[in-house]
Amino acid sequence: MRSRSRTFVRPVRPLVPLASSLLVVLGWGVVAHNSGAGWVQALGDVVAGTLLLGMIGAAFVLVRTRLRVTSVPTDATAGQPCAIGVQSTSRVRLAPVHPPGPVCFVGPSGTPRPAVVPGTAPGDALTLLPRRRGVASSITVDVASAAPFGLMWWTRRLRLDLPSDLHIGPKMGPPVVLPRQEDDRSGDSAHRSPRDIGEPRGVRPYRPGDSRRWVHWPATAHSGELMVREMEGPTAEPVVVVVTLPPDEEAAESVAERAFGTLVALIDRGTSVFLTTTEAAGRRTDAVADRRSAGRRLARAVTPGGPGSARRTDHGIGAVAPAEPVAAPGILVTMADLRRSHHRVEGP
Amino acid sequence: MSLLDAVKRANRPGPPENSAPLRLACAGAVVTGIAACRAEGELSWAVALSSMVLVTVGMYFSYRTRARPIGWLKPLLALAAVAAFLWFFRQLTGQELYDVSTVEDPLAVLFVWIQVAHAFDVPARRDLAFSLAGSASLMAVAAAQAVDLGFGLYAVVWIGFGLWGLVRMWGSASDGGRIGGRGIVATVAAVLVLAVAVLTVLPAPQVAGRIDFPANSAGGAGLPGAGGLTGDAGRATEPARAGSSSGPTRVGGFLGFATHLDTALRGSLGNTVVMRVRAQRPSYWIGETFDTWDGESWKVPPKSSPIALYSGSPFPVPPAVDSPQVNDPPAGQSDLQTFYMAQSSPNLIFHADNAAEVWFPARNIYISGNDTIVSPIALGPGAIYTVRSVVDTPTAAQLEAVTGSPASTETPGQAKALRRDLQLPHPYGRVQALAERITATDKTTDAKVQALIAWIGAHTHYSTDIPPLPPGADTVDEFLFGNRTGFCEQISTAMAVMLRSIGIPAREAVGYVPGSYNPITDLYEVQGKDAHAWVQVWFPHYGWQSFDPTAVVPLANPSPGLTLVHDAAHALRQLPLVPLGVALAVAVVTALVIRRRRRRPATWAIAVARRMERAGGRAGRRRRPGETITEYASALDAMGGDTSGTWSALAWLVEASAYGQQEPSDEERRRAERISRTIRPDRRRAGDPRAPDLVGAATVTPAAVPAPRRGSPGPPPGDAGPSAGGDG
């Protein structure tokens, strides 16, 4: 996507360059006036033209500069650097505003730059340091240039559309205190590695309800009774994590971080997790199988509220959240069987 | 931030500059400035060469030590700069400020040594910028002395180094950024355009300072014979003598700068630049006047004793007329002229009318009886002097008011002197009768002069190709009653004799017309062919006033910008505009056609896809990179709220054509193009509360979309299918 302008170009700290140029021109004028020499005036005109171009040339360069985001990762983490590829038609200085990030230069240079993402068009890398989670479909940057002579800087603010949404997940926060697991399978470890879930574990007798595809024929022939393959299953019952974000942004960030830590802890011990959050389109409950999906869900989470209270993670226009009863902000970890104990963590 | 903090921050050393090309450019600019000063004679060879070497060495030393500057070096260099300043002031004190080299040369040396000292301590980009600015000061000092276009070579080289340095400065500030070839060309063009624009707008510089006006003897030797004329044959010390038909060629080909002006001789005026003049206004540069006419030649008075002025520079020139109006001219109306001799010249001090002061590099000058200012030294190439004239040209009304004869209004001494200017070798009966007939109805002197000028302009012809004067013939009789063809000498002599015949004092003046104006150097370039003769007429109370019967167009005070525009327009008029205009029009049209053809979509499918993108863009939904046309069309369908899938149907056609090699029929194509031009997605669905309803073909139905042909897979499910008229 190309850039969309929001503001006019404006000079950056113009006092010193303007004053210096004025002094040079005035000094030259004094020499010309006192000497009456034509060459002094002719050279002075060239000097004045050069200084004039140096003062205002960058403004024209900025107006004509076209910026384009060439590549963007799908996921990022708040507080962690995230590199996106940017192409510029001229050499400019970029200062990310939203999300923030360090200043860098992009555009044609004397040294070739490799592609930010292998296989994509070569371009420069712009590093973002998002402070908060969210979904970014565009970024805001301050573009500056002092071309062609570096005498005076001009800047303008641009919004660059991203080719795809960037999901910024929360940082890893301390998980809430999770309830102890009860496991009646003797000899089994209460903790299963998530990657083992779904792998063959052994054989057992057929029970009504088992799929016919699970029949283990060699074991059946050996034992004389119908035997089926047994897969690794989650060691614990599915857990529903309900995350309700408070209206305050800092508090919501804190809750999201703890929720992320909780989700990661549950996923790491093999628990099947369902996450309930409020998104722009409404309340959503869905399974999360890994950190990435957990981060994305939390990135899209918004504070529940009345109509029109859709949380805006970028400057785009989101859908209106449907009216729902507003739960208390916090993280609610609930076992699938409601008779089991559940643990509720209030938000800060 | 307090002021002290701001000063500290401003003086904080910057990061080391690693760009070698930037240092090369700065060093080149400084060396060019030194070379330019040397070319204008402001530096000796020893100073110029040694400073060039030291600047180069210093820049290299700074480059090598840029990351760790030597601490004790900066105070040492500061001491060197102070020493240079002390030397400069010592050079100025106790000097007589009558020679240009007294001030300009030490100033150039001072700037050079400052640059040399600075070159050893330029670790950062800011320091290199100061070097560039310093080179500009050197060029300014050299340009103040430049009088010809040869200085342009140094100017071009310096501008090249300067622009290169500035571009590299941006490259360094932008962490390796570069400007391509087209950008460089555009930058240079922009600088030149802006420079020409500033030159056009600004008026010509006029000298305002009175510290020191240029004067340089250029080593001219003293001349024997107090006040005598020399050098008219090109050898500065050879006494001037009357021209002859077989004599040597005079300076520039003019035979008049001597004790005689023989109107029977025909000179050969050339294009050699004799001198260059910087003046506040164009004037005729008077070299000499003659008041004794013998029928063929003008001569200086035989027993005239020139007056020697020993007051020192500037020399006050006594007024020609003891008259209140001339002795007390209105304040602020001075005309300064500086003459730069390009050839060995007669020892005449040229000047505009009413010279009042002369800055001359000698102990004395001479004023002859006929108001000619004579130099005591030979004037060779490089000699410079300055004259201040008083602009007291009376208006036409003032001259019209002058009546009465000179004898009735001037002092006895002046009246006696003016009798020489009424002298005639013999009675000019026919000339007098002619003059009286021409001026019969004119009562005032000015009216009579104007009437004679008008008559000469109407009844005579200017030509330099005239037959030689027959032996014994009178120049005026031959001109007025013979062929009536001649050049400035014959014309002005005839007018002077006619005026004298009716009792008006007149004399012959010889010198140069202003010459061609050079807008770059702001100098009038006087060539040999600019030599001229004209008439001076005496007006009571106003003195000698110049009239040129040869020229009828008054001189205009040029400005550099207007002169450039005028020269450019003149050059343009020489061009064959019609063929060039036709060729330019053809080229423009061809370029437009080629550009339009390049932008034209290569295929029908691309054209339709672009229309869809434009329509979606106007509705606020742009197509994302990597988004297929089908996905995009689905998004547009969702925006429009139209589940018939018109956009998707169009997208299907586009993809079938582009990738499925299934070109639609002409009818299908036309219908699809019509639909793509008219259909619009609903902006409201894109979240824009201002959006209107569906515009255009809001009632587009699936039937309006062309149905796929037999055998084609058909549009994807869920899109507008060929429910009517299809094979499915």
Name some characteristics of this structure.
heterodimer, A: 348 residues, alpha+beta, 3 domains, 7-stranded mixed sheet, 5-stranded mixed sheet, 24% helix, disordered C terminus, B: 728 residues, 7-stranded antiparallel sheet, 4-stranded antiparallel sheet, 12% strand
Alpha-beta content class of chain A: alpha+beta
Number of helices of chain B: 21
Structural class based on helices, strands and sheet pairing of chain B: alpha+beta
- Largest interface, C-beta within 8 A: A-B, 47 and 63 residues
Query: H/E series of chain A, N to C?
Result: EEHHEEEEEEEEEHEEHEEHEE
User: What percentage of the residues of chain B does DSSP assign to strands (E)?
Assistant: 5-15%
Work out the helicity level of chain B: 40-55%
Low-pLDDT stretches of chain A? 306-326, 337-348
Mind explaining what this structure looks like?
The complex is a heterodimer of chains A (348) and B (728). With 348 residues, chain A is an alpha+beta fold. Chain A is built from 5 helices and 17 strands. Chain A folds into 3 domains: 1-169, no CATH class; 192-234, no CATH class; 239-344, no CATH class. In chain A, 24% of the residues lie in helices and 30% in strands. The longest helix of chain A is centred in the first third of the chain and has 27 residues, at 38-64. The model of chain A is unreliable at 306-326 and 337-348 (pLDDT under 50). By secondary structure, chain B is an alpha+beta fold. Chain B contains 21 helices and 19 strands. Chain B has a 7-stranded antiparallel beta sheet with strand order 7-9-12-8-2-17-16, with no helix packed on it. In chain B, helix 2 runs antiparallel to helix 7 (151-173), helix 8 packs across helix 16 and helix 14 (475-483) packs across helix 15 (488-501). The longest helix of chain B has 23 residues, at 151-173. The radius of gyration of chain B is 41 Å and the shape is flat. The chains are: A alpha+beta (348), B alpha+beta (728). Chains A and B meet through helix 1, helix 2 and strand 10 of A and helix 6, helix 7 and helix 8 of B.
